[in-house]
């Protein structure tokens, strides 16, 4: 997995670097870097999943459960990270902070 993911980043971000900048490579379509990165990451994820399933064949049930919970925690963490970066987390945080500010304001009015 690390080699596949590294190669995906090298090809995807490398193509983006070559396609942009002071002297971009002519004729390189703009969608190519993201496509290379996406295909590489999908390939790496598939390879890692296949390797994990093979490793679980002879493992004890508690070890398999531990591995599945670890995988689920990674998925949850990266989903939360995506939402935080994409702005969904920022809107939720702003709503919570605004709610607290309004609550403090209402308490001040009651006094």
Q: In angstroms, what is the radius of gyration?
A: 23 Å
Q: Uncertain runs with pLDDT below 50, 5 residues or more? A: none
- Helical amount: over 70%
| Cα shape | flat
Task: Give the strand content.
Answer: under 5%
Can you walk me through this structure?
This protein is mainly α and 111 residues long. It is built from 4 helices and no strands. It has helices spanning 2-19, 32-56, 61-86, 88-110. It is flat, with a radius of gyration of 23 Å.
Task: Please summarize what this structure is.
The protein has 111 residues and is mainly alpha-helical.
Using brief descriptors, characterize the structure shown.
111 residues, mainly alpha, 4 helices, 83% helix, flat
Structural topology:
Layout: H1 2-19, H2 32-56, H3 61-86, H4 88-110
